[in-house]
Write a structure and sequence with these properties.
By secondary structure, this protein is an alpha/beta fold. It has one domain: Phosphoenolpyruvate-binding domains (TIM Barrel). The chain has ten helices and eight strands. Strands 1-2-3-4-5-6-7-8 form an eight-stranded parallel barrel, surrounded by six helices.
């Protein structure tokens, strides 16, 4: 019997539906560049979202509103180059789908041409026409319900959603609307576990959560949150540790210490040492002088 690990297959929609049927959780992570996508893929992550949150985590924007299609496509190209097995979803930035069905389809196709398996857009019933147009064009569409960062001003800030019976019924209404419009899945953000469970039980499509409790079909986290490298949007204590995020590493602290060590060694002359320097090779003797009259 061979002890070699079988080659990993590309994750497809069929793979994700099988996981739901078997009650296996899908592992979902954001990535915005080649190395993060590469290492996530090597670790066996099922799904990667190239989120517009990259504008905040990688560019330092205070919200996702300034992120452009060109920036998103740049992030996406790096992820596609790095991840060969994960199911990749491109996040439609603010303004790239809201104006019209035609604009939504054109911009969604730009993600698909790069190699994305699907796209994500925010909104429920109000975005059903856009979802239907993209789905009718043969594009897999994930919706985004609950706390939707592109509409955060409407909620009065980053606030938990679906905390009352009325709010839960509102979520379910929007979930059914996007399902009818043709979405293959939805991401629900910042809701109590009961709301995540109700959506998962009610809808036939895949339901993934970010801060939505354990009962959904899979979990999404922002890679910079779990790694401790999100330097932006700090609270009054100078930290950013959302309630729903578990820190699996503090890479930001390690990076800062490494940079401090480097700066110290450059300043005190420790770096570069002899082991970091190139050596001269034996040089041939200078050629004889062959000019006429030379001795």
């Amino acid at each position: 019997m061979s002890d070699q690990t079988p080659a990993r297959k590309k994750v497809t929609l069929h793979t994700l539906l099988n996981k739901k049927e078997k009650k296996e959780k899908a592992v979902f992570l954001t990535a915005y560049d080649f190395p993060t996508a590469f290492f996530a893929d090597q670790a066996g992550i099922d799904m990667i979202l190239v989120g517009d949150s990259g504008g905040m985590t990688k560019t330092g924007y205070k919200s996702t509103h300034p992120v452009t299609m060109e920036e998103m496509l740049h992030f996406t190209q790096g992820v596609i180059n790095g991840a060969k097995h994960a199911f990749i979803i491109g996040d439609m930035p603010y303004g790239s789908y809201q104006p019209s069905d035609e604009i939504a389809v054109i911009n969604a196709m730009r993600f698909i041409r790069l190699g994305c398996d699907a796209i994500k857009c925010e909104g429920g019933e109000e975005m059903a026409p856009r979802i239907k147009a993209m789905s009718d064009a043969g594009i897999l569409v994930m919706s985004h319900l609950g706390l939707t960062p592109q509409s955060v001003a409407k909620f009065g800030g980053y606030r938990v959603q679906g905390t009352t019976d009325a709010a839960l019924n509102y979520l379910l209404y929007h979930g059914e609307a996007i399902q009818k419009a043709g979405a293959f899945s939805t991401l629900v953000e910042a809701v109590p576990p009961e709301a995540g469970k109700a959506l998962t039980d009610k809808l036939k499509i895949l339901v993934y959560g970010i801060g939505a409790g354990p009962y959904v079909d899979g979990q999404l986290v922002i890679s910079d949150d779990m790694l401790g490298t999100f330097a932006g949007c700090l609270d009054e204590k100078g930290t950013r540790k959302p309630r729903f995020v578990k820190r699996y590493a503090e890479l930001g602290e390690l990076m800062e210490q490494a940079f401090r060590d480097y700066a110290r060694e450059v300043r005190d002359g420790t770096f570069p040492g002899p082991e970091h320097c190139y050596k001269m090779k034996d040089m041939p003797p200078p050629p004889c002088n062959t000019r006429e009259g030379a001795p």
